[in-house]
Structures are given as C-alpha cells and as structure tokens.
Amino acid sequence: MMLGIIKSITPKERFILAGSLAVMVLLLIKRGELPLVLTLGLFFIAYIAVAYDVVISAFKTLFIRHRMSEQFLMTIATFGAFALQDYPEALAVMIFYKIGDIFEEYASGKSHEEITSLVKLKPSFARLVKDDGSEEMVKPRKVKIGDVIRVKAGEAIALDGVLLKGYAQVNLAALTGESMPVTFKEGDEIPSGGINLSQVVELKVTRNYRNSSIARLINLIEDAAANKSRPEALITRFAVWYTPIVVACAALLALVPLFISGESWADWTQRALVFLVVSCPCALVLSVPLSFFGGIGAISRIGVMVKGSIFIENLARLKALCFDKTGTITYGKFKVTEFKVKDDKALAYLKALEEQSTHPLAQAAVSFCTEHLKGQSVFKANEVKEIAGFGIEGEIDGHHVVACSKEYAKNLCGTLDLSAQKLGTEIYVVEDHKLLGLFVLFDEVREDAQELFVKLKDLGIATAMITGDKKEVAQVIARELNLSEVYAEQLPDDKLKAFNEIKKHYGLVGYVGDGINDAPVLAASDAGIAMGQFGSASAVEASDVVIMQDELSKIAKTIELSRKTLSLAMQNMIFVILAKLIILILGALGMAGIWLAIVGDVGLCVLAVLNAMRALTWVKNKVDLKELKTAVV
After folding, report:
1. Which one is catalytic: 147, 324, 443, 601?
2. 178 lies in a domain?
C-alpha cells in the first residue's frame, strides 16, 4: 500500500517528502526525543520514497542483464550504512544520486525519438476520379494501383502516379530538400509528398499508400530513430567495472578471518561495510553529470541546444561530419549572382513577367529587378503564360517578350552573344526574337561556411556533403569549401545509405541538416545537428543538437566545447577515483572510520562539483533567451 502511494506521487513530491522526514528525524535525534523504532520507521519511509526505483532497477539489472550497475553499488552501500546505523548517510547517498539523475533528465529534454510532427506529413485524403469524371474524397490507403487521382493547385500529392496529360510543377522539398520546383511532363512519374504548384493535374496511381514515397520517408525516420543505438552514459559504463571490483573487495575484507586466525569477524565485517560506504560513488554520480550539464549550459550560451550529455560525448569524439546542402551549407534562397544586359529594358521586362509567377526563381528575379530599377518606369505584362519546363512569356508594350532557359532562347534567337560565367540557373530575356539580357540565379553559400570547414579540418574531422541537388552544383560547392566527399541527387533512402557507408569507414559520424528529407539521417547519426531557425519541425525533432540561429560557424565551437566538457568530466573521474582509493586503503587497514569516510566523500563531492561548474565560465557572452525560445517554436 505504501509503495503504491509513493508510486502515485511525482519525483519532486517524493524528494520533498524524503527531505522533510530526514530533517525532522535529524532534529529529533539531536534532541534525544525519538525512540529507535520510530527513527528506523521514518528513515525507512523516506528511503523508500526517494530510492525505491533505484533499488528495483539495481536488482533487475543484476538478475536480468547479469551486471552490477552504479544503482546496485549505491543500494549495497546504503544497506551497509543502515547496518552501521548511519541512517543520514544512507539517505544522503540516494538523494545525491537522484539530484544527478534530475540534472541529466533536465538536460536531455524532449526525446528525439518522439517525432510527433510526422503526423502532419501524412496526406489526409486523395481525390479519386470515377468513371463518369466526378471525384470522391477518400483515404489514401483506399486507393488502388491503376486508379486515377486528381490534385489541385496547392495540394499535396497523396500517392505516386504517372502524369496523364500536360505538365506539372511540383515542390519536392519534403523528399529532396531542394526549394527549386521540378517540372514533370506527360508520362512522368510524380512521387507522393510533393506540392502541386501548377494547374489541376491527374495521375494514374503506380503504388499503393503503404509503398508510396511519403509513407516510405515516414517509415525511414521512425525506423532510424527506433534502431539508433543509444550509448550508455560515461558514469554507467564506468560502473560496469567499478561496482563489481568494489563489491568483491568488500566481500574479501569480510572474509579475512577465514585466512588469518585470531581476527575478529565483527571487526572485519565493519571494515567491509565502511569500505562500501567509502566507495559510494556520490561524488562521481553528481560531478560527472554536472560536468556535462555545465558543458551543455556553456554551449547554450552560444545559441546551441544539446539534448543530452551522451551527445556531448559523441560530439567530442566525432571522426566525420556530413552536411546537407540546401538550407544548411547554403541559405536555401535564390539570388541573382550575375547579370548582363544589352538594353536596360531587360530588367523591367523580367520584372513584369515574373511578377505573374509564384516560382521561387521568379520571386528572386522580381526582388532583384525592383532593387535595381529604383522606381524607374516599369511595364505591365499581358496574356502571360508559362512555357512548360522552359520559362514564361507575355505581351509587353506591344512586343512579344520571353524569359526563358538557354535552350529555348537559342530556338528564338539562333545564336546567343551573351554567356554566363558563373554556375546557376540562367534566365534569358528575349524581345521579338532579340536577346536583351542574361540573369544567373544561384543558391548562395552561407558566409560562415568557409570558416566552419577550415576549423573542422583543424579539429581533424573529415567532411562530406549529401544532397538531393544536381551533381554539377554539388561539385562546385564541394570544391569551393574543400569537402572530402560528395554525394549528389540523393533521395531520403539514398541519403541514409550514403551516410551508412561513411559511418562504416569513419566510425563515429554526425550529420547536419534542416529539411524533412534529412530527418532519417539525423535520427540515425551519432550526433544529429539541425538548423533550428528555418529548419523543418521533423528535422529539429529528430536531431540531438539544434543550432538556434542557423550559424554554421557555431558547430565548430560546439565541438570544441564538447571536447573541453568531456575532458573536465574525465578529470573529475580520475581525481575522485584516486582520492577514494586512498581512503579505501585506509578504511581497509582500519585507519578510517565511518565519519572520516563521510567527510572525505562529501569533501570530494564538493570539490568535484566546484570543478564541474567551471564549465559555465567558458563562454562569457550569453544569447537572448527570448530569441532561443522563438527559434525553438
């Protein structure tokens, strides 16, 4: 009954209960007003309130996994403290451990495996076209292969299918991460998950919903998150060796009278129990998580959120780091990087035509022209229509004007006397078969990208880019930034395969991305880093680290701070172990009593904690918390 009541209250309430009982008992003991039976009863209730889950976990690990955990060591140590009638020490051991556990849980935050935003990706309906031409709204899973579905402008494509007629412009950012819409012609297969940007289209379904592109993407993310092996925390791995050694030594001490005649069983049993109490890992259990917690705090000051201490350790030991391109290495927004005009009308003509389009390239061209025209006289385009896959045309001031691709411009003009020097999407402005100007648009590399890759090289970390963009574009950026490897034209499942190849070669590998299509790799990586300001909700949720303001240069700083944090945690471990070893030897020789052990343990704990908190002094500047909150939302 008592255990049921304790289980029903929150951990915070259990701490308040245990702490209140402990203080009350200590005061009453000091005044000599409490019978021993009542003392034991109150301490037992307080102990169960704070430690029942630790004790259960300790014995489950022992009997099911056949391993002694740090919980088992503390359980045995507290039992020994009870046997020595040192009840405050028994309770303090568990309270210190739970405090460290709370710090860890707080730092971990929301689990990256709970990718709740994936539900929003799933198409909720499909427009099934009947034999008489009418349509019916049905669940995607009810549509069969060979059925025809209709997709209106602005709607998500629910199922993979072949385009029956005309053309369609589709935003495939959910699948490829690229903001540039893709043009499909009659007979082309269009994957589900894209957004139809053109007129109403009809598709003949080629895959059922279970095998559709969007369903496979969601399954990839969920499987990658579920199958990601979560390494055990540093202190837990240490306890695998520390705990059995300590328990074995204590047992040997208790059995000394078997080998040395004339020795007292009571004396050596007490030494064994003192040995267990002295070996209590409070200083380790509290200082090591606090070292990581301090490191997480220092990293948060530069605008980066780490979702748990294990990822600090992974960041510190990274051997390679992979990157998405669009929205990660680049801004994900097109800009005019080169323009050549034979007539100033080219700017006004381009603006007049592209104002009629919602294409990302058109919007970038309009912004550029508006800025350069600076209020000069502009034209109005009439009878504007898109040329499927080639550009846009219309009537302006009595002239036939076209903004189009290089191939289409050649058909209109014969030869072109303007050529682009820079890589990008080329737009040619032609008036009545006469070339007026050339504009090149490109997704610019972030200003701090070069700085990041130089620092990563200095840190000894290999780099690779895995992108859904074209090979030519990817290779140009890779050469500019001196990347080690490049994987281009990758869909989500291809990205995961490419990442796994890199991981086989390097071992501990991280990934940096921002889109829905990056979520599977982010979830599978040892340290998934998401761009938090403009990154998709799925990418942020699947990641382990979030760069709040999308500043690439902060990734290198985060790795540097992670290495310092791991070094600090190791310092604490070595310091505490050596100090405890001295006290343990003294205890085994009968030269250290229980109170000296307690003083040594608490003193070590205080020193280790103070050393751990040095991490908070590593970064002086502090980001605006309101900005961080906005970025997370």
Report:
1. 324
2. yes
